[in-house]
Amino acid sequence: MTSPSPDPVTPEAGDGDADVRTPAGGAWELPSAADIQKYDTMLGGGAAERALSLVEKRFALEVEDQYQRRLDAEHRRRLDMINVRFRIAGVVVGASGFGGCLWIAKDFVDRGATTQAAGLLGGMAAALSAIFLGTRSRTPR
């Protein structure tokens, strides 16, 4: 129901002020007045209103699609920020736990309980290696 897009006008040699138009991909153009009269004679009255309503519906769908894409992009950006914050919180909690264990082990060594300090440091090393190896095996490739 729409007229075909006009071919782009290319400037001739020496014609510097020719209008260069490229057809927009997916853009709907209104039919010409002659086409609307042909539709009215072939299809009966109201062809122009039906053509306009189709163009308006298509435009409304494109606007809604663009709005939804913008909402989706904003949602993805927020999810990325939440992911970064969770990773930072995990690093802070892990580092503070690691620092706390080192502090306790130092206190054990200062009080002369070196076997307890060695057990604490060994357990900490085992837990860290289990965390890193377990995370590496779950990571999708």
Overview of this structure, please?
With about 140 residues, the chain is mainly α. Helices cover about 70% and strands about 0% of the residues. α2 packs antiparallel against α3 (about 115-140).
Shape: rod-shaped
% residues in beta strands: under 5%
Average pLDDT rating: 78
Helix coverage percent: over 70%
Helix segment tally: 3
Order of helices and strands: HHH
Measured between the Cα atoms of the first and last residue, the distance is 49 Å
For the biggest sheet, the summary is: none
| Number of distinct beta strands | 0
Structural class of the secondary structure composition? Answer: mainly alpha
Low-confidence residue ranges: 7-11, 13-23
Short description:
With 141 residues, the protein is mainly alpha-helical. 71% of the residues lie in helices and 0% in strands.
Name the descriptors.
3 helices; 141 residues; mainly alpha
Helix/strand layout:
Blueprint: H1 33-43, H2 47-110, H3 114-138
